[in-house]
Amino acid sequence: MMLATLGLLAACDAHNRTSPDAGHIDCMARAMYFESNWSSRDGMIAVGSVVMNRVESSEFPGSVCGVVEQKGQFAPGVMSRKLQGPAVPLVKEAAASVLRGERHPLVGDAQFFHSAGYSAPYNNMHYVLATGGNAFYEKRRPEEVTQSAPPAPLEGLTGTSS
Fold first, then answer.
1. Where is this region: Disordered (predicted)?
2. What's the structural domain count of the chain?
């Protein structure tokens, strides 16, 4: 009986890793949709990678919804505005893919991004990627910054699903 229970729990855990919770998919999709303006799959996957980097950090809430719901961190109305239009299925697919483990290969440890056209006056921003209309960066000590401006935009690095 105990072995059967352990087997069932392992199957549930495997299912949870491959079939992300609908609530987390919704929160992730909202961040991707409103932050990348569904401009490209790479942009959405990069936003999702930042969300997951924050989830894994002790400096931010430990859940996708907790990170996305954080006041002042994402687009106004991210949790209340309606997801609509032909991009919604692509956004939901990308959200589920990130929750299953897909990451943008160039985001690395970045936990921050801003609109690609924005020029910030700070000297601690180490840029790693520009894609989907956003520039992604890590906060570093100023002497450790080697890329102080966003690189040229890059698209086409993520697949259609993982």
1. 141-162
2. 1
